[in-house]
Design goal:
Distance between the termini: 59 Å
Mean pLDDT: 86
Structural class: alpha/beta
Order of helices and strands: HEEHHEHEHEHEEHEEHEHHEEHHHHH
Number of strands: 12
Number of helices: 15
Strand content: 5-15%
Shape: globular
Low-confidence stretches: 455-464
Helix content: 40-55%
Strand order of the largest sheet: 5-4-3-6-10-8-11
Largest sheet: 7 strands, mixed
Radius of gyration: 25 Å
Length: 464
């Protein structure tokens, strides 16, 4: 592929230069002269650019597949204890019983959404055997609502490490009593499972002993407004991408993911040795994005994991630009800091490429806006360029097609284009802010959106 790319580059470089007469001048604010091109690039340049893009994408996909296959075939029990080859050998001719599901719901002041989350679990065609609400420093009626719905509650004790710390405390109590097929599901308290989620996940885990984790595909709730629809469109495209990858996981999302106890124990045992964090902890309490970090940890240990198309959930959307900014800044900083903690390894290679791609997108979108504004200011009248209009129409079609299953609102928003470009620009600013904060050593803050309900009274019968 590298040779083919080099040949394409040589072909383009050896081509005839564009006609100098195609350049025109403009003046910005009557002061600065601007030179711009009014014709489309030559056909060979366009073809070469497309070919290079396809070659690059194919090269990354092939390299990722080779890395995954090598990791899954590893036979090193110290560094790759979760590789399918080792797991299959260790579990051969061993029946660990039917797959059971224990759900942990970390909750900090989640009285507004917790009831719907529990109901979505209880009403599954394959309901979980056990539901535990992990109440972390709650000041509202979260515990009371959990008890009212007949589920167990574990309250965190002196926890200062947010969600990861609360889950670590719960894991130390739950994991010791679980067998290989007694899987643990961790899901957010503002999430509802779509019908059939657990049945599909349990079937996959029952059919494949080597499978260590199953993640969910998340979609936005039905909150009204433009900001909510922008987020829904974003989540729809993410789900579409995972389905096109045949479930190959980017992140075992915290909205809803299932883990075999073997996988969680291996992570806890490897922390402080081959993985970041403190030995004995399932979750790294220094990470801002514990689900992303746990995904990288499992991949580093050779684990096989999938996100099946049948496992979908509906999650809460950020109600304001302020809360969206806080959420995405945490996600972005957490992702980059996790990569910094692991360094450049075969398992983190794809994630580094993604971050570089985001960085390129920041430059490209910024240049697009800057050049568009520059052209408008430099000319007395608007000039239409058929080539760039054609490219714009292709982009509009892509925006509509990729959210088609989201309904007419999603399609209309995709067709209008400008709102999604502005949304992307905001996310680009978040990216730049996150990188600058890390570079300047600024401390990060974990923010939580709280919705409250009228207080309720339930007998305080809690697991201690």
């Amino acid at each position: 592929m590298s040779g083919a790319a080099l040949l394409l580059w040589l072909a383009v470089a050896s081509g005839d230069p564009p006609d100098a007469g195609a350049h025109q001048d403009g003046i910005v604010f009557g002061v600065w002269n601007v030179v711009y091109d009014t014709v489309a690039p030559p056909a060979d340049v366009i073809v070469a650019a497309i070919a290079l893009a396809l070659l690059f994408a194919a090269g990354i996909a092939s390299l990722e597949r080779a890395i995954v296959n090598r990791s899954h075939r590893a036979t090193d029990p110290l560094h790759k204890p979760l590789s399918p080859r080792l797991v299959m050998a260790a579990t051969a001719h061993v029946y660990a019983g039917p797959v059971t599901v224990t759900v942990l719901i970390p909750a900090h002041d989640e009285e507004a959404s917790l009831a719907a989350t529990i109901v979505s679990l209880s009403s599954q065609s394959h309901p979980p055997e056990r539901i535990i609400v992990v109440a972390d420093n709650c000041t509202d009626s979260t515990v009371a609502i959990a008890l009212r719905h007949g589920v167990e509650v574990i309250e965190s004790v002196d926890n200062v490490h947010k969600k990861a710390g609360a889950l670590n405390q719960a894991m130390t109590r739950v994991l010791p009593g679980l067998g290989d097929n007694d899987v643990v599901m961790v899901m957010d308290a503002d999430t509802s499972l779509d019908q059939g989620f657990l049945a599909a996940a349990v079937a996959r885990l029952g059919d494949d002993r080597a499978l260590m984790a199953v993640g969910g595909l998340f979609y936005g709730d039905d909150s009204p407004g433009l900001l909510a629809q922008l987020q829904r469109n974003e989540y729809i495209r993410y789900g579409r991408e995972i389905r096109r990858r045949r479930g190959l996981v980017f992140v075992l999302t915290g909205t809803a993911s299932l883990f075999r106890p073997r996988a969680l124990r291996a992570v806890a045992a490897s922390r402080g040795l081959f993985l970041p964090g403190r030995t004995g902890d399932v979750y790294d309490t220094t990470s801002l994005t514990e689900d992303n970090e746990l995904t990288i940890a499992l991949k580093s240990l050779g684990a096989l994991m999938v996100s099946p198309a049948e496992c979908t959930v509906v999650t809460e959307l950020m109600p304001t630009w302020r809360t969206l900014w806080a959420q995405r800044l945490r996600w972005q900083r957490g992702a980059v800091e996790n990569l910094g903690a692991y360094g450049i390894t075969p398992q983190t290679f794809r994630y580094w490429i993604q971050q570089l791609g985001i960085g390129y997108g920041v430059i490209a979108l910024g240049a697009y806006f800057a050049l568009s504004i520059l052209m408008v200011l430099a000319q007395d009248s608007w000039i239409w360029f058929p080539f760039w209009i054609g490219l714009g129409l292709v982009f509009v079609v892509e925006r509509v097609v990729t959210v088609w299953h989201g309904g007419w609102k999603a399609r209309v928003l995709g067709a209008t284009l400008l709102p999604e470009l502005c949304f992307a620009a905001v996310l680009n600013v978040v990216y730049v802010k996150g990188i600058l904060d890390i570079a300047l050593g600024r401390s990060a803050k974990w923010k939580h959106v709280v919705h409250t309900l009228p207080p309720e009274t339930v007998p305080p019968q809690v697991i201690r």
